[in-house]
Write a structure and sequence with these properties.
Shape: globular
Structural class: mainly alpha
GO molecular function, one term: transmembrane transporter activity
Subcellular location: Cell membrane
Oligomer: single chain
Protein name: Branched-chain amino acid transport system / permease component family protein
Transmembrane segments: 12-33, 39-61, 68-88, 100-124, 131-149, 169-190, 219-240, 252-269, 276-295, 301-319
Helix content: over 70%
InterPro entries: ABC_transp_permease
Radius of gyration: 20 Å
Largest sheet: 2 strands, antiparallel
Length: 328
């Protein structure tokens, strides 16, 4: 048994055991609960619904690895989406061309980066707690968005945008391809770059990282900027999927991004975790949502189940850590 576990850890990593076990459990339970679960329709639905949640989770991941948090990701995504929508509206609305879309997307990414830049600067130079800083940014972005839109939606976009949210290439949904590209980019950044190494160092011990010569302020600013850019990508995907934008889109996603990170083995205090187990955890959560939907549960019950699952994950991780200490 120990040899098998060692081989598994060598191939996949120890942090993959939990997400893969959860994936197997969800597949087994719902395959018995509903004959329609293990079908192409279910997995096709998951493939289209997963991307915006997945990209938002990647936006949450890097701040958590530094020991922080970005509570403003959903409103950053919505403000970025609104930026793109306003650019399209100013250039003809449904008659806007690809040039207007590219300009609006660039501005949306810039808005996401600016949101992260402000948070990163405040956190890095004042040492204010990331929860308070990101909460303040969340409140600001929500209030700004409500003021500018008067609480309404913006819709009426060119038809060539629709494939970004609903199209497929060789049978693979376009938004899923975008998510996979973001997952690969995040994995490479965290595992192969100096910024990734510095991110883990700061999460492990920021003072030690500072004494070892790492410019911790610069790293924190870059991490929150990248988080804002990733949230903006999610905002663009949501605009294409829903064909409309409003400030409150995806508010429930915030809880799920944190849950996916913890289910994927990310240390809530920073310094440890990988992208791939988080990606598997995202699939688990989306399959759980689809399974509950097939059983007739509404979205509110699904959100409640996600909240309970977050508590269960934290308790199980505590028991696991205690068991390991006892064995040693």
């Amino acid at each position: 048994m120990n040899a098998l576990a060692a081989r598994f850890n060598a191939i996949f990593g120890a942090d993959m055991a939990g997400p893969l076990a959860a994936l197997a459990a969800v597949l087994v339970v719902f395959s018995f609960a509903s004959p329609h679960f293990l079908t192409g329709a279910t997995f096709g639905s998951v493939a289209f619904q997963l991307p915006e949640l997945g990209v938002l989770t990647l936006a949450m991941l890097m701040p958590i690895l530094t020991g922080g948090l970005n509570l403003a990701i959903t409103f950053t995504a919505n403000i970025a989406g609104l930026t793109l929508a306003w650019t399209l509206q100013a250039n003809g609305g449904i008659d806007a061309g690809p040039g207007a879309f590219l300009l609006g997307s660039a501005l949306a990414l810039a808005v996401g980066a600016a949101s992260g830049l402000v948070m990163g600067l405040v956190i890095a130079f004042t040492r204010a707690h990331p929860i308070l800083v990101s909460l303040s940014m969340m409140i600001f972005l929500r209030g700004l968005g409500e003021f500018l839109t008067r609480g309404g939606d913006i819709s009426g976009f060119p038809t060539f945008i629709a494939p970004i949210g609903h199209g497929s290439i060789l049978g693979i949904p376009v938004p899923l391809l975008i998510l996979i590209a973001c997952v690969i980019a995040s994995h490479v950044l965290l595992s192969r770059s100096k910024l990734g190494f510095s991110t883990y160092m700061i999460g492990s011990n920021i003072e030690s990282a500072r004494y070892s010569g790492i410019n911790t302020r610069k790293v924190l600013v870059l991490v929150y900027m990248l988080s804002g850019v990733m949230a903006a990508v999610a905002g663009i995907i949501m605009l294409a999927r829903f064909n409309s934008v409003r400030v409150g889109h995806g508010e429930s996603y915030l809880l799920i991004t944190v849950l996916a990170c913890f289910l994927g083995g990310i240390n809530p205090f920073g310094g440890f975790g990988r992208v791939l187990p988080v990606f598997v955890a995202l699939i688990v959560l989306q399959l759980l949502s689809s399974g509950l939907n097939l059983l007739g549960a509404n979205q509110h019950l699904t959100t409640a189940v996600w909240g309970i699952l977050l508590i269960v994950v934290m308790v199980l991780r505590w028991f696991s850590a205690k068991f390991i200490r006892i064995v040693k």
